[in-house]
């Protein structure tokens, strides 16, 4: 980071920071839904210290067992476990919303970074469960340790996924020797128009949840805990169609009207994930085994130009039919793709410079995509909508997967007429954590 | 509007516009869910011309009546009727998301404005029903008349609410004499830090839906239809907790962690709405009878400063308890508020400069609020989150309701330490439309 950047960060720190929940965070977790139910019992005080909970909950359970059971059942379905062999938010199901955040560290010692990661780990496990943070939510003379906007809301399948960028391995923390060779500096690609405000970061955090308010609460809480240790560098919201609008759960469409995700590998296929997503023992830095590399690209879609192109052009751009999602010439979304098949005119049915043909290539390079649409008001310089795709993908070695793929796309993709990459970052995501451990512990 | 503004608009127009669906829009409506179901029947082509629909739908209905019935039932619950005595989106239930858009007209004749409003009316009625727009969605040599991203999604309780701003009544369309006296130029308020990029507009459009992708589709479609007639001036997304995260439907919390909406009048109380929301015959301009005035204020919350204040300060700021939402000293959210009640120290339990005390006053001035939280990345000048409240309210006469209320708040509200108004607009919302009519017809 430039020294200018550092000064800006100092200023930012003064602006951003707020009373941290401190070491007492999470000592007495209380589910947000429990709180809501307690409130229904008489409102004698919602944010009780842990001491008061057992008694009132007991009384409440006796009075309304059925309600509690329903709530508990729906809560389990609403929860994705934070702890595990791998981090959540990678091969786990994709909730309806995304809030992506990049942080820059402002501390200077490895020990301070470790402490931050320990505090973030505790908080993230609690957020995934839908618990309130901390124990100072009912004391009038203290800032509440939980900011409260998610009180009463379900866990909403919250996942929080952490990674560290190339700058994390500069001279500051004495970790340069552990920088994975695969965590290269991202090369420039054809068509890049990157802006600093959506690029880079010492740490990348992907939050997903079925509720935007819950996702916001998570990022805000992490930023708060980071007080004095790290500042937000950039954030980006994202959405897809909700489960409510599409209970059948068809492949979601992107803002270009096309089904997006059809050709994605099956995240439930463990062998495949070991092959293309999870860093294996012997792949390089041992601390990365079980982790993966997360690439984030903020890609603006020139919606207005796209909307002027014909359906024929649009379908040739992707190599798929808009309505069914089937490969051109086919009729079913998931039917086999044959890039060699020619049409009546003797040319390939799926144009060689279509997005699918180029991204697929000979099929030997795969990535796991997990993108979300975004709508961020307007670009006031041009009067156009600032909308597009917050592209996120995971891969085992970006040098062999994302980078060569994007090099090909950046050069020849028909889609380039309609998109522009405005932000970019890559993060090495740690392996999963077991209870008692903390994110990054294999590195420290 | 300044001539500079006009030039910018011309440039914008060239950027923004895209092939409009044209006059054929909506001649052959097809529900987005019908499409999805058709796709399931064999994928022989989803976007059929109307001619093909009857036959296949018939066959499909016979094959799977149960499914269709379920879908129809859930669809009805998911639909808020566009036509009616009043516009939808005012006293109708508030869906989970907001997309607010302000447009500037680029045409010069009243007749062209009328045509735009007629096209927008047809489209809005179809969007509220979850229908695809237009009939060129299956012709390879034309731009699709529907942009497609909401295909297969439910109507999601979409409402689209139209109003016109003070600039609509300048010299351009010969309508100056019909400008309602109540549609004053908004005065400057204490604490305003308005930015042009979120202020004003000839036309204001509030879109609400239970799905962000559906809301986006609506605004994008309206902007597309406006090609050559109007350009987007600003947009702002908003959210609240979803029905999924809070099935019980408690009062939503704002990003300051407090329940927001408790003191709002009951939108189902028709007498009350006639009193405070709907312009009555004899109130002034006859064309506004059955309409209302919509005020939009983009209010940034200084989240980081708020999070450093104690629970006691926070509760004194609003005059309510954070956990229960009850007035200070009380225990139930909806219990009666007594601003005169003193605490043990002889001072009012609810501070006189608290937000509630000031907004409530002697109870003689009321408005109908319908705000949404927003999270729009970061303010890169300060490094702070750009998050807050997209405040929207409706009132019968802003000179007697919103303006005096905000004058008082702008001057003395304790909340001002933590918020800043960054955008502002006011629009005269037309009365409702009957099928065959169009928005604004009472004015033209
Ligand atoms: C705004 C930008 C982009 C849009 C709108 C987009 C959209 C799509 C669509 C509609 C498909 C076909 C359906 C599917 O298989 O999901 C697709 C496929 C794919 N895209 Fe993208 N994409 C974008 C950027 C990227 C980028 C940056 C990459 C990676 C460098 C990428 C990699 C892929 C891959 C690997 C496939 C699957 C190809 C196959 O094996 O069939 N896409 N994309
Ligand atoms: C970020 C800005 C604002 C926030 C966070 C906010 C929040 C709140 C909260 C928490 C309450 C108490 C619960 C309730 O009755 O809903 C409230 C009440 C109220 N607010 Fe605001 N508000 C904001 C701006 C405004 C503005 C600009 C106005 C109008 C000029 C306004 C008018 C009212 C009214 C009329 C009440 C009800 C008072 C009563 O009768 O009890 N608020 N607000």
Structure description:
2 copies of one chain form a homodimer. Chain A is an alpha+beta fold. Chain A has 2 domains: 25-77, no CATH class; 97-429, no CATH class. Chain A has 11 helices and 9 strands. The first copy, chain A, has helices spanning 3-16, 32-40, 50-63, 65-77, 110-129, 212-225, 270-276, 303-306, 311-318, 355-360, 402-412; strands at residues 97-105, 159-164, 203-209, 230-239, 292-301, 368-369, 372-379, 384-395, 419-429. In chain A, helix 5 (110-129) packs antiparallel against helix 6 (212-225). Chains A and B meet through helix 1, helix 2, helix 6, strand 4 and helix 8 of A and helix 1, helix 2, helix 6, strand 6 and helix 8 of B. The complex binds protoporphyrin IX containing FE (HEM) (2 copies). One protoporphyrin IX containing FE is lined by residues 254, 256, 258-264, 297, 299, 301, 318, 320, 337, 355-356, 359-360, 367, 388-389, 391, 402, 405-406, 409, 419 of chain A. Chains A, B: Residues 251-433 form the Dyp-type peroxidase C-terminal domain. Chains A, B: InterPro entries: Dimeric_a/b-barrel (IPR011008), Dyp_perox_C (IPR048328), Dyp_perox_N (IPR048327), Dyp_peroxidase (IPR006314), EfeB/EfeN (IPR006313), TAT_signal (IPR006311).
Quickly list its features:
2 domains, 11 helices, 9 strands, disordered N terminus, nine-stranded antiparallel sheet, binds protoporphyrin IX containing FE, globular, homodimer, 27% helix, alpha+beta
